[in-house]
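Researcher: Sequence recovery benchmark, item below. Answer with residues only.
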C-alpha cells in the first residue's frame, strides 16, 4: 500500500514565574571641575559597592552576582543657542549590574537607590535559573513532539488512514524542506513594570515564556 507523507510543525509553550531580577544602573555626575565630578562619582560607587558586598552571596542571595564597569571621565565644550562655545563640561560615569534571587529585596533596593543623587536606573530584566530553564526547555521539547504526533494523527485520520509512522524529527529548518531555521529555544526575558501607586516601589515581573518548535515527518497508511 502506498504511504502518504505528512509533514507538520509541533509546538509548545511554557510559562514560569521569574526567579532572578537583574538591575542595570549608571552612576555619574557632570560639572565644570574634573576632580569634583570624579570624586563624587567615586564616592557614590564606593558606597554602593560596599552595600552590594554585604548583600552578595552566590548561593543564598539576596544578591547572587554583581559587576561594575571601569570609571570613565570625558569632557566636552557644549555650544550655546547663539552659537558660542561654552566652557568645558566634564562627565564621569560607570555602570553597575546587580542580580537578585530575592525579588522582594530587589524591589526594596531599587526603590532606595533610585532616590540617590547621581544614580540612574536603566531597567530590570527578569529571568530563570539555568537549572530551571533547562528543565522547562526539556519539558517543552517533549510536549512539542507530542503535539506533532497529535497533528499528524489528525491529518491521517482525516484522510481515512489509520497507521502513522515517524520518519524524521528535527529542529525547525533542518528537514531539508526549505523552511527557515530558528534560534534554539530560549526564555523570553521580561522587562520590569513599575507600580507607583504606593509609597514604596513595587516591581511586577511578567512570567518567563519558553517556546519550542519541532518539525516532523510521518508516513501514514
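Model:
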Amino acid at each position: 500500500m502506498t504511504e502518504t507523507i505528512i509533514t507538520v510543525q509541533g509546538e509548545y509553550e511554557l510559562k514560569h514565574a521569574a526567579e532572578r531580577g537583574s538591575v542595570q544602573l549608571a552612576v555619574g555626575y557632570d560639572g565644570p571641575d574634573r576632580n569634583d565630578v570624579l570624586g563624587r562619582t567615586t564616592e557614590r560607587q564606593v558606597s554602593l559597592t560596599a552595600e552590594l558586598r554585604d548583600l552578595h552571596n552566590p548561593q543564598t542571595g539576596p544578591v547572587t552576582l554583581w559587576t561594575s564597569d571601569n570609571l570613565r571621565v570625558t569632557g566636552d565644550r557644549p555650544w550655546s543657542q547663539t552659537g558660542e562655545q561654552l566652557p568645558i563640561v566634564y562627565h564621569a560615569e560607570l555602570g553597575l549590574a546587580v542580580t537578585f534571587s530575592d525579588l522582594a529585596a530587589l524591589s526594596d533596593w531599587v526603590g532606595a537607590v533610585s532616590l540617590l543623587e547621581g544614580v540612574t536606573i536603566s531597567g530590570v530584566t527578569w529571568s530563570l535559573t539555568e537549572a530551571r530553564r533547562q528543565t522547562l526547555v526539556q519539558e517543552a521539547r517533549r510536549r512539542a513532539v507530542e503535539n506533532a504526533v497529535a497533528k499528524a494523527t489528525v491529518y491521517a485520520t482525516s484522510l481515512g488512514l489509520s497507521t502513522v509512522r515517524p520518519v524524521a524529527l528535527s529542529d525547525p529548518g533542518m528537514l531539508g524542506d526549505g523552511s527557515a531555521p530558528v534560534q534554539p529555544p530560549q526564555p523570553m526575558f521580561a522587562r520590569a513594570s513599575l507600580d507607583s501607586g504606593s509609597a514604596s516601589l513595587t516591581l511586577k515581573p511578567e512570567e518567563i515564556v519558553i517556546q519550542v518548535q519541532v518539525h516532523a515527518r510521518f508516513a501514514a497508511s
